[in-house]
## 1
Amino acid sequence: MEFVYFLIETAIKVIVVFAVVMLAVAYMTWVERKVLGHIQVRYGPNRVGPYGLLQPIADGIKAFFKEEVIPEKADKVVYVMAPAIPLVASLSIFSVIPFGETVRILGREVKLCIADVDIGLLFVFAMASLGEYGIVLGGWSSYNKYGLMGALRAAAQMVSYEIALGITVLGILMLSGTLNLSEIVRQQIEGHWFVLYQPFAFILFLICMFAEINRTPFDMPEAESELACGYNIEYSSMKFAMFFMAEYAHLLAASSLVTVLFLGGWDGPWLPPGLSWVWFVVKVGLLAFFAVWVRGTYPRLRYDQIMKLGWKILIPLALANVLFTGLFMVV
Amino acid sequence: MIWPLIKGLGVTIRRFFSGPVTVQYPEERRSVSPRWRGIHYFEATEDGDTRCVACGLCVAICPPKAIRLVAVEREDGSRYPEIYELDAIRCIYCGLCEEVCPVDAIKLSRIYNVVGSSRSELKWDKKRLLERRLEKEAVG
């Protein structure tokens, strides 16, 4: 009987998380356009519904009815498969992210996390880099020089920033001694948020995160002005929309990860344990806003500058952070 | 190296809160300058006919030759335009016709949003020019 309850509970959690994330992804496009608009002293979308709130729905319908074009010389199987990879990868990150205190519903202890696994962080990193494969394959298989350039850049960027990202997280792992994300949050609730112990790692992680999710100022794989959209240049209709959704889902996943690792997850004052997830949502929302804010502020780095920043600055700094964390732990 | 980046973030967040300056065109309209030279209209006499005496000065001065005039003489010797046709596509809106007109019959309004789906639609005849006298206050 317990097993059946477990299945029901997990199914409900999966559906709720999936629905909330997909809704958040849809409205992230609205937030992005609105915030960018206001940064540029204009309105952003405001025609569909009040404050343009129905814009994501209109965009979805439009994408759905658009013509599907597959280039004649494209590698059809890979071409069709590619958009699904980043979307699935970035959505599955949410399966290990704990978003609230354990609550009691109908006499059952329900952990607000779909799968509270001990290798949570490892899983997140595995999935985050898997998402990049969709971009590489999509750009490569579409038989287009800009697509190929975008794919190459995505691959190079992934290689150089994944290392710095991994090393940055080492500092957190040394402090917490566990890969379990719920456990990491619990330690922060009992002690202090890790951002206080690792402010340097926090900034490095944010920078690497932007590179990892291919956002401005590191959006090399799509670089509109030089690559004419890069890896997704040949994609149309829902396949393009899937790349787009994957990008925003990845942004939200990365924000959730920063929240869990550095900002104490669902930790926050005033709210009862049953509503602790509100703090999580607020923190993720602020980080997502910050990502849009950064996009509205900085120009794109040149390709060689990105490589230089990754290899010559971020990796040494991340290593230094690990060194000093170790020294402080010993002393 | 870091400080300019933070300053940049400061600039954008100030703009974020300063509010848009967009003029929402179909609902809001920018008013044009009082001396704006838009599409032409005819000033009318008391009985609603054009004040034009078909002297032909506007035709003579018009740099792109956008005006076509066929003048007719009445029995009492006064002239009036049988056909007065102004090609809005040819016109360069210099306003010389307005300046040269001895009876202030043709004037330039402040209407700037003129559209048409064919070339012939944008040839304003006498009737249309007189009608626009009433429309001219609606815009700008």
## 2
Amino acid sequence: MARITAGVGSSHVPLLGVAVDQGKSGDAYFGPIFAGYEWTRAWEAEQKPDVVVLVYNDHASAFDANIIPTFAIGCGERYKPADEGWGPRPVPDVEGHADLAWHIAQSLILDDFDMTIINEMDVDHGLTVPLSMMFGQPDKWPVKVIPLAVNVVTYPVPSGNRCWALGEAIRRAVASFPDDLNVQVWGTGGMSHQLQGPRAGLLNREWDNRFMDLLVGDSQEARAIPHIEYLRETGSEGIEMVMWLIMRGALGRETRCLHRHYHIPCSNTAIGHLVLEPVE
Amino acid sequence: MSGHRDIHEYLAEFDDIPGTRVYTAARARKGYHLNQFAMSLMKAENRERWKADERAYLDQWPLTEEQKQAVLARDYNRMLDLGGNIYFLSKIFSTDGIPFAEACSTMTDMTFPEYREMMMNGGRSPEGNRSIKGGY
């Protein structure tokens, strides 16, 4: 049977992709950020997951203002890196796992989650930057990816509780897939950042770290954090952290922390990174 | 579980955050064409047409004159007020070749070097920036 073996949380700042693509990941500015991912790169190379369910948000790349799915799951065979206004990133195409993706989509719908199904789309930095952070610059990504896009732009975005519950439903869905697959769930985005208005540049080290604390162990507290708290404490774009709760929900009752990293700043954003495993 | 059942209460709280325009449905409706115009700049051929004559390109979109003026002036706070969302508007400054952080700095009362220095020093503190009414 397929099983969820670990969860990864990570920021997906586009500038990190630029740093990788331009060979700057070791310089004075980016070095400390990338150093915090070295442990994970070695760990991923050992773990060799078959599939990653990659929770991210599309930044006006695949979706425009016209259609706004709250939760959308990619069920296609492959996805190309999106042109976000300066040409697509020079990274490999992303290979999907259509069998497992369709299985999860069907299971979630039966489980009361009304998913939007996507067959074709391009994937932007929200999805490809975490792959670069965890796998570097291979000719081919060493894992198949099921993109799970969440609306965290147009309000109301889904509640933290709903995200956590979706993670729980993904765990049930994966457990009922007959093939023997090692599956990870990644929650990306965040941490504190605000990209707009006179308050742009807001960062909150203390709140971000408390949020990461809440994802370790058996606390359920994070699922009740209201949107207004993310907005006040972590900036208008800090709300992306609800996507980490899908990852956390998918790990079951209790988690153990394998690795943790936090760094300020990367461009406008606080970088957070967490590797968790379920405690059975 | 996560609080609100009443959409009016939920939305009202958003107006209490200093220096922030939360991208609500009301803003999304107002800015629909503004955001779709910005999205159109993801295509290389559209970027060329836009660069050749910004005003003529804008005139092909059903934007208000106010929205057009805000775009031409690269007044991002104004664009946010008129329904723009920063992820869509980012296509405009990407086309201008301006980094995200520099575009952010134009919405604050700082120059880009001052903004960059603030970020290097840990960013803008949430202290006093959480609530207008509460002042905390």
